[in-house]
Amino acid sequence: MLPGGPRRGTLQALPLIDDCDRLVDYFHAAIAPLLDRPFGFFGHSMGALIAYQLTRRLLRQGEPLPTWLGVSAYGAPRGDADSSPHLMADDELRAWLRSGDGSPPQLLDNDDVWRKFAPAFRSDFKLVDTWTPPRSPEPLPVPLTAFTGLHDNMIDENRLVAWRRLTTDFRGLERYDGGHFYLMDHQQRIAAAIMAAMRSAAP
């Protein structure tokens, strides 16, 4: 999901985390008991960054790696920042999200709903905006597939294809009809694609 999106599920009550390393710490601890079996990561938008960084953490510490990594609606990390949404004024941030089809209209157009979710938006955007990409990252020895919506105005397709330089086994770019939230309309297809990728990547 887009950084700051409302779909946090059962984690809504947890304190907001606006630092990438701290969020990776959280998920690293959560999956530690499960690393004795085959697993894969699929991350959408900011989730793709967390999945990538968590995989790098496992590699650096010599722990089991995912069989496969899927990154969705998030461009390959690079040195320059596109913008700093977490520093925008409310009206500017809402307009920016509207222009990129980055959030449901009912969230952006309702002041009461916006006030409820705006802190989560800013926290997630701050996490992405303040994260420093590695200068010369070692390509991950993990099969990686990128996913995108054909009409996603927020992510250039070239940025998604650029993931190929961050893995030793790039499995290509999967395209689906829709915008930044394309996956909401293709859940069964994407689940099937993930399972097929996991089976294909299994040793």
What does the model show?
By secondary structure, the protein is α/β, with parallel strands linked by helices. 40% of the residues lie in helices and 14% in strands. The protein has a 4-stranded parallel beta sheet, with helices on both faces. The chain has one domain: Rossmann fold. It has 7 helices and 4 strands; from the N terminus they run αβαβαααβαβα.
SSE layout and pairing:
Blueprint: H1 20-31, E1 41-44, H2 46-60, E2 69-72, H3 90-99, H4 105-108, H5 111-130, E3 140-149, H6 157-161, E4 167-176, H7 187-201
Parallel strand pairs: 1-2, 2-3, 3-4
Shape summary: globular
The number of distinct β-strands equals: 4
The CATH architecture designation is 3-Layer(aba) Sandwich
CATH superfamily: Alpha/Beta hydrolase fold, catalytic domain
Number of domains: 1
Rounded Rg: 17 Å
Given as residue ranges, the uncertain stretches (5+ residues, pLDDT < 50) are: 1-10
User: SSE order in H/E notation?
Assistant: HEHEHHHEHEH
- Class derived from helix and strand content: alpha/beta
